[in-house]
């Protein structure tokens, strides 16, 4: 604070009275604002409760719909097996179907009962997993028998036959039984999913499967979404913000799922009220205390001013000069250098393993270590040199005495020797190291910003080289900096000017005869640097904040070009940064609508990186995107730590076996065993299995034998422009010559 103002505040006369009057005025204003704040906080907390209840309802609805669809997909996958198709064509059809269902029983444990019925209503084959009641049959079986016998129970709304089954898949129906419990019934017309000629079936058959929605299932749902008292009721509850209607295909409501939503606003209200009450109680005491301590406050202000002036150029912890003082000293040294024609060196030092000391022994130990490092660095310098703490665990040195490369190398060796000696911190011996970057003037640069940037580049090189070493700046180190700047400037312009291009790599059926999908791969034909591969700019685009506009450009262009390939799925890779963006789902849906692309033909390929950071948020986003019909594939399957956990928790449609498993693979080797296991696991879960990196005919035959659904690799095609995909799709069996030659 300036001295004249401090002198005025030490006067206990008119200044004190003016200050007291100001405090009284502010106190009255504070009371009025506090009353208004209570009213505003109350309204906000009520709205927060309402919004939280609505958000939970939307997430629970998406979770229920997703689980229902997942059950249907798994059931369709199991029912479309060749075993069931063979049984339908045998003369002794009913025993063959019964035997097939028994063989599949271990894979149908999710369902309490599975029955195959004819159009006449007779049961052809069945298995029952639900424990019978005292009357000898389960609730689900009782409803099924009542329906088949002609009893039109008002609680059963499922209809078997062509008219009740839509062309797009099975019918699902919620049924409320007499005891108030709920069953989920799924009906499937087998003739629509069997890989056989319908005319070969002696009778039109349908399948009815039901599963009991138990208390444990509801409890798991409540725990996942942090709600309480989740239950099923037969009448509409009193709180419409915490209810989900379970509807039959005809629109009737079979049951209501209700729960007690979280009320974050109440907790916030209580905290605010207590805080406001506490402030009100303390304000009067603070008011009197401030008036009485007016003179002492003025003296403290004056003392503080002196301390600020003293510390303006000093780091408070290490007592070394701070960054501001370091910059001023460097500017002055460079100005003297321009006049004298001498030289200087800037040395940047970053401590290695300092964070481990902080995390293990606490910040007090870290502060003590910083002080000891500052002491050792000061002792390692010669007169005329300057050492400063630039922040955190980073230090800087300005060397003006013998600033030759040999002298700076000797200084680097000396600093490494000093800082690798053990430190005694809080009676514990700790050992650290350091990485050092050195830039020299005028050899490398003559202004402060550039010189520090080059020294930092050399420091980064020392860290990449293994740490605990020093590096001088070399001109070739600028290539990575130039590449980053080029990507940041040119890539943004290339996106805006539509200068990128897409190639597509076919995904073919396991027999190699049909293209079932294509994967979009971005390419950058730079006007000066030629074709830049994605490996050179994707990571930099993520680092520089360009991955979201780049990904949106890829998705928009791919949807536009793939519209003409009817019946072919389009696979687009998703960056973890793009997936975690708050508007990811909305942006995808917007692009699909603007390009008029069929969402059921779009398949987004995710890696474990999009799931690790926040699994709950990832699950909500995936449910939302799947609710719009978009498919999801787990890319690079088998290379992470928790792929099996992800398959169990997240509703993927396909897994892609990573190409690394096919490299140098022999049919009897360990990689072959792993690939076989992954393919079997995917099929058992009802997922499509795609193998990447197929390059040889031996790999093709092996993958075909173990039951992969799709293949992708150089054996069939590299990534090619859209026009080449047009030519491949225009001919039958486009890869016949490649496969015959192999």
Features:
742 residues; alpha/beta; Profilin-like; Alpha-Beta Plaits; 8-stranded mixed β-barrel; 5-stranded antiparallel β-sheet; globular
Structure description:
With 742 residues, the chain is of the alpha/beta class. Helices cover 49% and strands 20% of the residues. The protein has 25 helices and 24 strands.
Concise summary:
With 742 residues, the protein is α/β, with parallel strands linked by helices. The protein has 4 domains: 3-60 and 265-310; 85-213, 3-Layer(aba) Sandwich (Profilin-like), CATH 3.40.1840; 314-473, Alpha-Beta Plaits (2-Layer Sandwich), CATH 3.30.70; 501-518 and 547-741, EAL domain (TIM Barrel, Alpha-Beta Barrel). It has an 8-stranded mixed β-barrel, surrounded by 4 helices.
SSE blueprint and pairings:
Blueprint: H1 3-9, H2 14-79, H3 82-88, H4 93-103, E1 113-118, E2 123-128, H5 139-148, E3 171-176, E4 182-189, E5 205-213, H6 215-225, E6 228-233, E7 243-247, E8 253-260, H7 264-292, H8 294-311, H9 323-340, E9 344-352, H10 354-361, H11 363-380, E10 386-391, E11 394-399, H12 405-420, E12 423-425, E13 428-430, E14 433-441, H13 448-464, E15 470-472, H14 478-496, E16 501-509, E17 515-526, E18 530-532, H15 534-543, H16 547-562, E19 569-573, H17 576-579, H18 584-595, E20 602-606, H19 609-612, H20 615-627, E21 631-637, H21 643-649, E22 654-657, H22 670-684, E23 688-692, H23 697-706, E24 710-712, H24 722-729, H25 736-741
Parallel strand pairs: 14-15, 17-19, 19-20, 20-21, 21-22, 22-23, 23-24
Antiparallel strand pairs: 1-2, 1-5, 3-4, 4-5, 6-8, 7-8, 9-11, 9-14, 10-11, 12-13, 16-17, 16-24, 17-18
